[in-house]
Amino acid sequence: MATPVAQLAVSTVIFSLRAGSTLWLPLVRRIREPFEGQWALPGGPLGANESLADSAARTLQQTTGLTPRYLEQLYAFGTVDRSPSQRVVSVVYWALVRPDEAEQATEGENVRWFSADELPELAFDHNTIVEYALWRLRNKMEYSRIAHAFLGERFTLAQLREVYEAVLRRPLDPANFRRQIEAGQSIVATDEYLAGGRHRPPRLYRTNESIDLAENGPLPEQGAPHALR
C-alpha cells in the first residue's frame, strides 16, 4: 500500500495600518470543508509549475486584489494534526502594505479585514500563525528598517514614529526616536516639507534605498512564541 503524500500549501499573512493606526489583516471565509464558514488566511495548494513566492502572490491577488511590494517567506507549519482531512504542510509568507494600498483591497461577504490583536477563532492553526507573524514583525521593528514598508515614498519623522508606536503598542519619546533613527542612517532628508498644517511644516524624508528593509541591526532576535518552541 502506498504511503499517503502530504499536501503542500502556501498561505499569507498581510498586515496594514488602518482604523486609527492599528494593525489589521484580511481574512477569507472558507466555502468548503474542513472548517466551512470559518475565517482563514488567504492561501491554497501549491501549483505544480509555480514557485512558492509565485503561489503566495497569486492567491493574494485572487482573494484580495493586493500585490504587495514587501513579500517574504515567514515559516513552515507542518504539525501532523493541523488539518483534520489530510496531512498538510503550509509554507507561510507575510506581506506589508501601505494604508492607501489596503484601501484598494477586495472586500465582501467572504473577504474582510480584522484587527490583528482581536481575531475570531480561525480555521486550522491560523491563530498560531498570526501570533507568530505578529511576534516576528514586532521583533523585526526593533532591529531593521521594515517599518518603512508601511509608508509612502515621502514621510515625516512623526509619521514614521506613529508606525513604530502602532506596531509595538507603546508610546515612544519623540526626541529619542529622532536621534536613534538619524543615527541608523535608514532615512534621507529631502528638501520638501509637508504642507497644510497650522504650524511650521515638518520636513519630509525618504527611505535610504541602499539599505534593505529587512537588513539586520545590532539587536539579536528573541525566543520564538511559546506555541512554536
Description:
Residues 5-138 form the Nudix hydrolase domain. Residues 209-229 are annotated as: Disordered. By secondary structure, the protein is an alpha+beta fold. It has two domains: 7-141, Nucleoside Triphosphate Pyrophosphohydrolase; 146-207, Orthogonal Bundle (Arc Repressor Mutant, subunit A). The chain contains five helices and nine strands. Strands 1, 2, 3, 4, 5, 6 and 7 form a seven-stranded mixed β-sheet that branches. The two termini are 35 Å apart.
CATH architecture of the largest domain: Alpha-Beta Complex
Q: Encode the helix/strand succession as letters.
A: EEEEHEEHEHHHEE
Q: Rough shape? A: elongated
Main β-sheet, in a few words? 7 strands, mixed
Gyration radius (Cα, Å) is 19 Å
Overall pLDDT confidence: 89
Give the number of helices: 5
- Which fold name corresponds to the CATH topology of the largest domain? Nucleoside Triphosphate Pyrophosphohydrolase
CATH superfamily of the largest domain: Nucleoside Triphosphate Pyrophosphohydrolase
GO molecular function, one term: hydrolase activity
Keywords: Hydrolase
Pfam families: NUDIX (PF00293), WHD_NrtR (PF21906)
Domain Nudix hydrolase: 5-138
